[in-house]
């Protein structure tokens, strides 16, 4: 049996609690006399009961919850992977800055940072093509570090990694998102590694991650309020070794 | 020479940091809807990994745009989830969700039901509903949003929301109650 054609929507609205009281009264009176409409209402309720009793809502996975909680505030637990809590800027005071500088670039790079990655790779390629690899060519970090004074408004740490197989070539000023950033250049055998350093943007994730794009490897991490992106055509294992070596040597 | 020309950078405003109390309000008002966001994304995308990406992206956007939220946080958040889902379909070169019609294809939902009469089967049945009926049903029956919120969220008039709901329920009734005669008796 089916509902009266002109009352079908009203019956549904009644079941959904969306009918105003006057129309609800009128319809309820009608339901007493109309088996078709009454059957339709019963059927709607049966479907709902069946549906709701099965509890078909999905619950967010714990890992997702942890990532989102980490983004919102530093007191959240369950941050995956990196020992972020040991970073100096994770200590007590800088809560506000922290809240602003956490994000989720690592797990959804295809959603959040493809444009940035394109810029990074473009910057890397440009530096190789245009004989503009370095503005200051020296393997002495005590020369490279001060060179950035007055050129960028932060102090990028510079590490010497020759013993680890990544000799320092020099430094250069580059641009990301329209802002000047420090680019440190290292070498791995015949390959160049560009390490871009900039103040961590608002909502930057503290989590390190490595990705691939167009044959290049990219690895990023955040430490001391700065965001680091290393770009190279060496394989991602070597690039992660570079990241590890740099973080260890620079204390980041 | 190279084609590298630094752009003028000084006119760009610095990113506004999210104040701690804003973060706390976000935690209080928006975070409780995480399950709703995930469930909705999951039924839209019908893919667990994609749903995670979509929700993560949505929370990132929501967090940044929290100042623009004027009450009704759940509907606001679900709107952002929906936009992220649409971006995801575009990014994945999927056919965009057909607003008008989509035929039920593949395995017949009744066959799915015959396999197992449990939550998974009901989920599979809901997922087998074509769009836009699935979305309307999920927002109404699972998320319990009022018609007007569903209308605002999906950009459809209330009358359209109601007829979509009716269609969705008619299909569900056929699938869920097909072999339960007592279910439809009046």
From TrEMBL, chain A:
Boundaries of every Putative zinc-finger domain copy: 13-38
Protein name: Putative zinc-finger domain-containing protein
InterPro entries recorded: Anti_sigma_zinc_sf (IPR041916), Znf_put (IPR027383)
Superkingdom assignment: Bacteria
Native species: Sphingomonas changbaiensis NBRC 104936
Gene3D superfamilies, sorted: Anti-sigma factor, zinc-finger domain
Pfam families (alphabetical): zf-HC2
TrEMBL record, chain B:
InterPro entries, A to Z: RNA_pol_sigma-70-like, RNA_pol_sigma-70_dom, RNA_pol_sigma70_r2, RNA_pol_sigma70_r4_t2, RNA_pol_sigma_r2, RNA_pol_sigma_r3/r4-like, WH-like_DNA-bd_sf
A GO molecular-function descriptor: sigma factor activity
Location of the RNA polymerase sigma factor 70 region 4 type domain: 120-172
Xref: CDD domains: Sigma70_r4 (cd06171)
Domain RNA polymerase sigma-70 region intervals: 29-94
UniProt GO BP: DNA-templated transcription initiation
Entry-linked SUPFAM superfamilies: Sigma2 domain of RNA polymerase sigma factors (SSF88946), Sigma3 and sigma4 domains of RNA polymerase sigma factors (SSF88659)
Highest taxon listed in the record's lineage: Bacteria
Keywords: Sigma factor, Transcription, Transcription regulation
Pfam families linked to this entry: Sigma70_r2, Sigma70_r4_2
Similarity section: Belongs to the sigma-70 factor family. ECF subfamily.
Full protein name: Putative RNA polymerase ECF-type sigma factor
Lineage: Bacteria, Pseudomonadati, Pseudomonadota, Alphaproteobacteria, Sphingomonadales
